[in-house]
Amino acid sequence: MEKDFDKWNIFKKELEDKEVDLVIKEWEIWWTNFWLNIKTESCWKWKDFRRPVLVLRKLSHENFIIIPLSTKLKDWTWFAKYEVDWVQYSALLYQIKMLNKNRFYVNEWKLERKQFLEIKKRLKNLLNL
Question: What number of other Cβ atoms are within 10 A of residue 22's Cβ?
């Protein structure tokens, strides 16, 4: 797939100027405006640079640690499988990132606490914390 970096740069400028008034909480799943990445980094899911993410930690009212999500199921040490509304997903633990709230736009779900704690445990094991 050919990546349109010019289109992303225009979109990124719009995100920078956007006024956002969202309440974002840990263990919620949000659709976000993701960027174009290089090689094996996770990218967008849809044509308009969207990807669902799990909010792992709130750093400030503007910044959050997130884990990108995928419907491609993998169960290696750097992935964590879970289920929401009878659909299975993989949390891409190795792609943990910080995002600004300007990238968030639709709150989809909230994970069950048990699932959230299991994902955090798998991430802790992956990072040897």
Answer: 12
Long-range own/partner contacts, residues 51-56 (CB < 8 A, 24 or more apart): 52/89, 52/108, 53/29, 53/99, 54/27, 54/28, 54/29, 54/91, 54/111, 54/116, 54/119, 55/24, 55/25, 55/26, 55/27, 55/28, 55/29, 55/30, 56/26, 56/96, 56/119, 56/120, 56/123
Give the range of the structural domain holding residue 43, as residue numbers without chain letter: 5-126
Model pLDDT for residues 84-117, shown as the tens digit of each residue: 676 777 888 888 999 988 888 888 788 889 888 9
pTM for this entry: 0.78
Into how many domains does the chain fold? Answer: 1
CATH of the domain at 90: 2.30.30.110
Amino acid at 31: W
Q: Is the pLDDT of residue 2 over 80?
A: no
Distance, CA of 9 to CA of 118 (rounded, Å): 36
